């Protein structure tokens, strides 16, 4: 099963804005395990570059610990998306943030889904 999660952040992030693309403490009260979530997939269409950061929390979001190095994301080509796929089944809670570069986005479309299967999207 795939569960789509609405993006509620800033429509067009600008100079160094940090926006949450997904936060399980908001989308999944009680933690990811209650929703049988193995992976989170984020499709991002962005006109300017930025950085993704992923975090996990063992205590329902009281403390967050970065779990992978910063991931630089280039601007997506016209009509293309940057696809990001993370295994999250080992975490109680998990979130991913976008730090915008120095230039305001003119296109910023976010599609987030929680997936209950372990195989990676191709």
For this structure, the quaternary state is: single chain
Distance between the termini: 16 Å
Integer average pLDDT: 92
Q: Roughly how many Å is the radius of gyration?
A: 14 Å
Report the sheet with the most strands, covering strand number, pairing sense and barrel closure. Answer: 5 strands, antiparallel
Number of strands: 9
Class derived from helix and strand content:
mainly beta
Strand content: 35-45%
Shape: globular
Helix content: under 10%
Into how many domains do the coordinates divide? 1
Helical region count? 1
The CATH architecture:
Sandwich
- CATH class annotation: Mainly Beta
Structure commentary:
The protein is mainly beta. The chain has a single domain, classed as Jelly Rolls (Sandwich). The chain has 1 helix and 9 strands. The strands form 2 sheets. Strands 2, 4, 5, 6 and 8 form a 5-stranded antiparallel β-sheet that branches. A 4-stranded antiparallel β-sheet has the order 1-9-3-7, with no helix packed on it. β4 and β5 form a beta hairpin. The longest helix is centred in the first third of the chain and has 4 residues. The two termini are 16 Å apart.
């Amino acid at each position: 099963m795939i569960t789509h999660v609405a993006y509620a952040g800033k429509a067009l992030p600008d100079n160094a804005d940090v926006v949450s693309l997904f936060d399980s403490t908001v989308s999944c009260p009680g933690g990811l395990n209650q929703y049988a979530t193995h992976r989170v997939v984020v499709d991002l269409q962005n006109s300017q570059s930025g950085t993704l950061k992923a975090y996990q929390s063992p205590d329902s979001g009281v403390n967050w610990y970065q779990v992978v190095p910063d991931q630089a994301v280039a601007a997506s080509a016209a009509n293309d998306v940057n696809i990001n796929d993370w295994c999250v089944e080992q975490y109680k809670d998990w979130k991913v943030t976008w730090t915008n570069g120095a230039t305001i986005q003119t296109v910023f479309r976010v599609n987030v889904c929680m997936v209950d299967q372990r195989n990676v999207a191709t």
